[in-house]
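WARN no homologs supplied; continuing
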Amino acid sequence: MNREQINKLISSGGFPEVTEQRKLIETHISWVLSCDRFVYKIKKPIKYSFLDFSTLERRKFFCEKEWQLNRRFAEDIYLEVLPVNVKNGHYFIGGHTGALIDYTLKMRKLDTEKRMDLLLLRDQVGKEHIEALAEWIAEFHKKATLIHEKNVLDLKEKFNDLSTEEDFVSTNLGLAYGKQIKRAIEASDTFLGNNEKLLMSRLRQGFFRDCHGDLHARNIFLLPEPQPFDCLEFNDDYRQIDVLNEVAFLCMDLDAYGKKELSDRCIRHYSLQFPVMRTAAEHRLFVYFKAYRANVRAKVSSLRAKSATKEGEKKILLAAIKKYLKLVQGYMNTLDARV
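OK structure emitted
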C-alpha cells in the first residue's frame, strides 16, 4: 500500500468491526491504524540495508513471523494476520472479495497511558516496576531458544553502519558530530578486536539466545505488571543476540530518559535472577552494548529525520540524534578509562 491508499482506508474503508476511532500512527517502517478496540499494523513497501518489505509476499511473511514471535509472551495481544483488499475503489480489511493489495497484523489495543515511555516522562516508574520488569526479562531469557552458531563480530558492521549517516549529521548538526561518529567507530573496532575471545566464550556458554531484539520503553506496557510487545521480526540476526545486549538496550533507554538510578537497578536486579555479568570484562561488554544501542537509536533518528516532512518533527529528531551520540561518546569514554 501507499500513503494515499492508507488515507482512503482510514477515511472510508471497511474494518472487521464497527469502530468510531481511526487514528494513524506512522513509524519509519509501518503504518499503525488505531481503532476503538483493536490496532492494525501494515508494513511499508520499503527496503533498507537491514530489512526488506518491498514485495507483497515478503510483507505477508513478516506479518506472520511477527505474529508468531510475539505470541511467545503476548498471546492475548497478537491476534491474527488479515488481508487488505480493494473493490471498486473501496478498501477493506478481511474478507475474500476484491483484489488483494496487502496484509495487516491485528492486535488487541492496550491503554496507551500505561506505556512505559509515557510513564517515564511523567516520573511514574518506580523501583518496584523496574524490578518486576527485570524479573520478567530474566525469566523470558532463561526460556528463550539458545543460539549455538553466530558471527560474534557482526556487531562491527552493525556499529559502523552509522557512517552512512555521517554526511547528513555533519550537514545538519555540524562537522563536530560527524567527527564524533568517526571516533566512535574507531573505538568500537578496537574494543571488538580486543574482546573477540570473550564474545566467543559467551556464545559457547549459552548467553546468545533468540530474544526480543527491540526492548526499550516504548515497547513495554506497565499494567502495572510488565507487558513487552513488538519484538523484532524483520531480521533474525538482530534478535538472536547476547542476552546482555538486550538488557543493555533497556538500560541505555533509561539513561536516555535521565533515569540512571533505574537503569543501574535494572541490570543489578536482572543479574540476581540470571547471572550473566560476572566479571569486570563482562561489565565492560555491557557498557559497550549500551554504546551500540545508543548508536542504533542515533541511526534510526537520522533515517526518520531525513524523511520528516514537517520542520518541527525534523527538529525533534535532530535533537534525538545529538542525545544518542552524546550517550555513545560517554559510554565509549568510560571504556577508554578502564583500558
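The longest strand covers residues 78-87.
OK
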